Amino acid sequence: MLRSLSLQLAQVTLGQDRADTGERAVKTRHYAEALQPLTEAIEIAPQSSKLRLLRAEAHEGLGDIESTIADLKRAALFSGDDPSLFLRIARLHISLGELDGATEQLRQCLRSDPEYKPCLATRRTLKNVLNDLEKGQQLVQRGQWSAATAHFEGLLEGSLGPNKGLPFQRQHAAHEFCVASSKLADHAKTLSACGLATELNPGDTEAFMATGEAQIALEDYDAGTCPRPRFAAGQAV
């Protein structure tokens, strides 16, 4: 009996030591150094919401959003109905473009507190943005390039601005703005629109191609994807 109690006490002491080490590392932003001690502490106290929150902060500091979400969801199970925690998880899902996951977390947020204004505002913003993107997509499908260009440009300057916390939706809108501008043959606007699209998504090959075509159309051969035509000596220009 005494041996069992001693072992338990040793485990508690070790867990507290690992937790303290991990917490200090998080507070000093040494996130990589925080993961191992926090993981060891969680193995000893798996239902500690504080430890889960600390490790989530470390994961987020390292840019591992999926692991951040996983720890936050576990913390939410152990900490009761905390609407701010559900909202935090929803915003992380949004940052990954995972709208179904975001919607589910917003539902849980409002179940825990139907009057929680930050959740209400986030849900309303997300709904409005998705509706606006759908309207723009319909313009594209109908080939209404002028209206589509104006629509997506307005979104990028408004609800999908750079600081609105909707990176995937902004990326999508920039791509469609680029495509619509190129279809409209507005070469100057295409350079601007497609420049933004490739800045947000360097893998957007359609935007790169549209940029080159617009540059060539503006007779900017040096910047375009095709070289200036060369002529043999003595050939008429």
Fraction of residues in β-strands = under 5%
Structural shape: elongated
Low-confidence stretches: 221-237
Largest sheet, in brief, is: none
Q: What's the gyration radius in Å?
A: 26 Å
- Work out the helicity level: over 70%
> What sequence of helices (H) and strands (E) makes up the elements?
HHHHHHHHHHH
Total beta strands: 0
Task: State the end-to-end CA separation.
Answer: 100 Å
Structural class: mainly alpha
* Helix run count: 11
Oligomer: single chain
Mean of all residue-level pLDDT scores: 87
Structure characterization notes:
The chain has 237 residues and is mostly helical. It has eleven helices and no strands. Helix 1 (2-27) packs parallel to helix 3.
Quick recap:
The protein is an all-alpha fold.
Characteristic terms for this protein:
elongated, disordered C terminus, 237 residues, mainly alpha
Explain the layout of strands and helices.
Elements: H1 2-27, H2 31-44, H3 49-61, H4 65-78, H5 83-95, H6 99-112, H7 117-141, H8 145-157, H9 167-184, H10 187-200, H11 205-217
Helix pairs in contact: 1-2, 1-3, 2-3, 3-4, 4-5, 5-6, 6-7, 7-8, 7-9, 8-9, 9-10, 9-11, 10-11
